[in-house]
Amino acid sequence: MDLATDTNVSVLFESDHEIFRLFELPQDLAAKLESEKPSALYLKSATSSASKESQDFQAAVLCTDDKTFNLRQVHSSNSIFLIQSSESEGSEPASANLTIVGSLKTILEAQPADVDVVPIFQGLPSYNGQELPPQSEGVTNSGTLASSGRSELLSNAPVSRTEFDVMWTEITACELNGITYIPTPQILARAWHALNEAMTAEGIDPDAHLSIDDLCTLVVVDGFPRPLVKAILSRLSGDDVATTKDIRLDSKKATAWVGKMTLQALSVNDQPLGLQFFLQKWKDSLPAKWHSALSLELLEECILQPTSQTISYENTTASSSFGTHMSSKLNEKKSSTRKWHDKFRKRV
User: Angle, nearest 10°, between helix axes 185-201 and 226-236?
Assistant: First the structure.
């Protein structure tokens, strides 16, 4: 409202005015909200009640479709008011009324969060091919959302949908009978091996565009649930399996993943495996067209070689919390055993 210098201004204060909070948003987030296709905003509880004693506890986070922001409450020493204005017509000199309808005592600052998605999935039940409880029964696991399906887990996760989906795919999580499970390396290796054998028997080119439904059907008869097979395909594809019926497998990604799952599945009591034994098992689990790509270099971030002829799995990635753990003894040998790795990178 433009006020001339000779305008009389009166300020009225409503005794029942409302209390507001001001959101201070990063520039890129504000621009996204003002775009033609604004992102939805979600306020979520930041942590479980078990961690509220932490000094770093955040009561809530703000999520868009693909990013998460921490919320910090800032108290202002200044008085900030929300006002409505009105002008009085026909009076000399001109007058205006300002009515205080609300006040702002705190400001919420949204700051980009350093997201740790792993704790969201820790404590969930493992799936190793066991008989599953009926959907109505669920399972219990103190301190976790162990009986949650994907939708409930996402709605309670203090991260954006995209950040959640990335980890869901990375660890091949799947929903079975309404419950989220983390498949073990053993069931993943068996399911992939069965799928590879079925594709070979059917003469299916692993590098072609493949029908997800057809691939699932190939191994469902062997007792592997469709959601499990779809989770594997999603992990090994560059496509968004949730929105497409066909996929193209990424041969390099698949070769590395199969090698990792094979090594974890074969590891017993953290004992090293014979190198040639492992390489042959890895090769046997791959389509013939992919054999030439097999190389220990694909696994350099997750293996140890205690000797020139042995190999062990090393826990290094974010998703390793759900896999086989290496013993501390082998981890201590990391610096002295890694040197064997370069000698055997190209061996098949």
Answer: 90
Q: What does the alpha-carbon distance between residue 17 and residue 67 come to, in Å, rounded to a whole number?
A: 34
DSSP 122: T
Dihedral pair phi/psi, residue 332, rounded to 5° = -70, -25
Which phi and psi angles does 309 have, rounded to 5°? -120, 15
Bridge partners for 62 per DSSP: 43, 69
DSSP code at position 176: E
Residue closest to 320 by CA, chosen among 228, 129, 185: 185
Question: How far apart are alpha carbons 320 and 314 in whole angstroms?
Answer: 9
Residue with tokens 């998703």: 319
pLDDT of residue 54: 41
> Nearest to residue 287, comparing CAs of 240, 312, 252?
252
User: Which DSSP string do the residues of 275-311 spell out, in sequence order?
Assistant: HHHHHHHHHHTS-GGGGGG--GGGGTTSEE-SSTTEE
Number of residues assigned to the chain: 348
pLDDT at residue 120, rounded to an integer = 87
Indicate the pTM of the whole model: 0.76
The Cα–Cα gap between 81 and 10 comes to 15
Selection from 81, 59, 84 nearest residue 70 by Cα: 59
Alpha helices in 178-307 (DSSP H): 185-201, 212-220, 226-236, 251-266, 275-284
**The two three-digit tokens of residue 231, written as one number:** 């989770």
Backbone phi and psi for residue 327, each to the nearest 5 degrees, phi listed first: -75, 155
* pLDDT, mean of each 10-residue run, the chain (348 residues): 61 74 86 88 72 53 92 82 71 69 84 87 90 60 62 92 93 94 96 96 94 94 94 86 80 96 89 94 96 93 91 68 35 38 40
Structural tokens at position 272: 């090293």
Q: Greatest CA separation found in the chain?
A: 99
